[in-house]
Amino acid sequence: MTGAHIYAATRTPFGRFGGGLAGVRPDDLAAATLSSLLSKTPNLDPALIGDVYWGNANGAGEENRNVGRMAVLLAGLPTSVPATTINRLCGSSLDAAMMASRAVETGDVEIAVVGGVESMTRAPWVLPKPARAFAPGDMQAVSTTLGWRLVNPRMPSEWTVSLGECNELLSDRLGISRERQDRFAERSHRLAGAAWDSGFYAGLVAPVPGVQLNRDESIRPGTTLESLSGLKASFRPDGTITAGNASPLSDGASSLLIAAESAAERLGAAPLARIAGRGVHALDPQDFGIAPVDAASRALKAAGISWREVGAVELNEAFAVQSIACVDAWGIDPEIVNTKGGAIALGHPLGASGARVLGTLAHRLRDSGERWGVAGICIGVGQALAVVLENTTV
Fold first, then answer.
1. Cβ-based burial of 124 (10 A; exposed 0-12, middle 13-18, buried ≥19)
2. Is 7 a residue whose pLDDT tops 90?
3. Taking the C-alpha atoms of 333, 338, 340 and 346 in order, what is their torsion angle to the nearest 10 degrees?
4. What values do phi and psi take at 10, rounded to 5?
5. Which of 388, 373, 348, 295 has the alpha carbon at shortest distance from 188?
6. Which residues form the catalytic set?
7. Is the pTM of the predicted complex or chain greater than 0.90?
8. Which superfamily, per CATH, for 4-121+248-390?
9. Mean pLDDT value of segment 91-120
10. What would the pLDDT profile of 161-199 be if each residue is shown by its tens digit?
11. Minimal CA–CA distance to 317: which of 281, 287, 353?
12. Which of 126, 285, 301, 302 has the highest count of CB atoms within 10 angstroms of its CB?
């Protein structure tokens, strides 16, 4: 078995719902970030890519028909480069990275491309087909932007509550206050803005051709506790979750190049980090927010290390409350978590977020010199994924 290494990472700026990327099809977003990724390894002959693993959570609109393969074709890669699309909802592109790393480790491929894309703006409304022809009644269009749709009536009702209500239940259970959630959100915006100002994202984010968007669009540098505390609760009249302490609807794409160490010469690049451990966990659907707790524990066990050795964590901030719950359960220093901001500020285009957190983690380890890092993400319907990275340059 050979090691699987991340050699390059890139992503588009993440756009707001209806914002700067609203006019770009998701398959074009995917192609743009794929082209940007390959520009980081100009020595690579694209024909040597053994497979492309692409994440996407919707699949109901312009990203249908295997958007990974569409990205390959639209980016002008040789038609001999294969591709597949993976759907594990919010974890889709982290799942893609895990699949690609296994393929590299077993020798099935030497060089793989991983990515993910979501345009929540362009997610279509859908109509279910009638049970019989010429139905006389009205038909309701259903939005595919986020959450449950066309729910099977056999599903228990406690499993199908909204994502927000799931996290209000978590807040109730763990006693995580509105103030604590708002503080977490303020930190996310402050650190994201500082990371952009310091140039951290300059090497990670590439603009989409033809679009005047050079920075993540949801970051609000002037966010304060006072401004957050004035927002209305989104899911309950007396609730704790608001538009300010939850991740926004977003558009964007991200990608990674994962390959064996033996590919370094052909790539003309040194690896950033080795994928050292992987973990997956599932529980009751309404408890999805804390699923990363056990997913990360499994990834750490696979890597043969403990939390005491971890110097950097990238946890996707679906909601402040679930992020706080995970950090509390791990018993780690909160200051090592999302030091470049998180999804509350940067955005959360579902299929792209997994590769985003993994690419950010690889660059954080390289810049800080820390040896070990953990990337984790919660997933609707009660799942989570986590990956441990080792900085092989230390």
1. middle
2. yes
3. -150
4. -155, 165
5. 348
6. 90, 348, 378
7. yes
8. Thiolase/Chalcone synthase (3.40.47.10)
9. 98
10. 999 999 999 999 999 999 999 999 999 999 999 999 999
11. 353
12. 285
